[in-house]
Amino acid sequence: MTTKQGNITHGARAAGRSKKYVRSHSEPDEGGVIQQPHFAAGASSPYEEALTEAADDLDEAEETPFRRGEPCEIGGPHSDVAAPCTFLAVNGDGTYRVQDVRNLKLIPSIESDFVHRYTPIRDGSDAICTVRNGKAFITACEISRGFQNLEGSFFYEVEYDEYVDNEMRVSVAELPFGSVERIIGRGIALEKGKKYFLPSETESDSPSSASSHLSLDSSHCF
To answer: Structural domain of residue 63, as residue ranges?
Structure first.
């Protein structure tokens, strides 16, 4: 899948709906075996239909066993964000085996109460995005639209602020669902325009004064 990015000035953004984006291309670096999980039943439905059905059938869906490879989210009563995951199996003791698709790490055992069926994030929602364009970083973003490809893999087009040549601009990217975290509480707030580089991919002499480090696990409390 190709990641699209582009920039506009805040002045152009304020001018209304006539804004234009200039996009460049780079490859998202999700990696791993399960990079673009597929939805189970109804995966080929249009985005709007999937969103409506998910809202109407949420209670029923929570009672239905997951299918292997089905998208899911990890979250608890004290979570500020929901971590995207892929369901793998039910263990003998009733716990779930899942894969955290943010970093492709296997979670061999997690209580089923913390694993929820995935539903699309609504357009216009704030989220936390992991962008891989050169060095990978986390940043605040906004959902422009969600869509599925022909294989049923789910993606989002998002907007995020960043500094380019000391000027704040709006960039656009298309990201797989595993790179977009749903905000479910207001206990977390990332400063717009800041890039939180992933620790393993950050150089100690990074020239960006608007960047800092953020652990993927630091903001999650289940």
So the answer is: 47-117
Say which residues have a Cβ less than 8 Å from residue 87's Cβ, sequence separation at least 6: 66, 67, 68, 69, 70, 71, 72, 96, 98, 115
125 shares a domain with 24:
yes
Same-domain status, 92 and 144: no
Structure confidence by residue, pLDDT tens digits, 3-13: 455 544 444 44
How many structural domains is the chain composed of?
2
Same domain for 192 and 129, yes or no, is yes
Indicate the pTM of the whole model. Answer: 0.62
- Tell whether 94 and 129 lie within a shared domain: no
pLDDT in tens, 144-160: 999 988 877 789 999 99
- What is d(CA 22, CA 211) in angstroms, rounded to the nearest whole number? 24
Quote the CA–CA distance of 52 and 35 in Å, as a whole number: 26
Among 46, 29, 83, residue whose Cα is nearest residue 221: 83
Backbone angles phi, psi at 43, to 5 degrees: -65, -25
Amino acid at position 7, single letter:
N
User: DSSP E strands: which ranges in 40-179?
Assistant: 71-74, 81-90, 96-100, 105-110, 115-117, 126-133, 135-148, 154-164, 167-176
The domain that contains 57 carries what CATH number?
Answer: 2.30.30
The more confident residue out of 134 and 66 is: 66
Residue 127 and residue 26 share a domain? yes
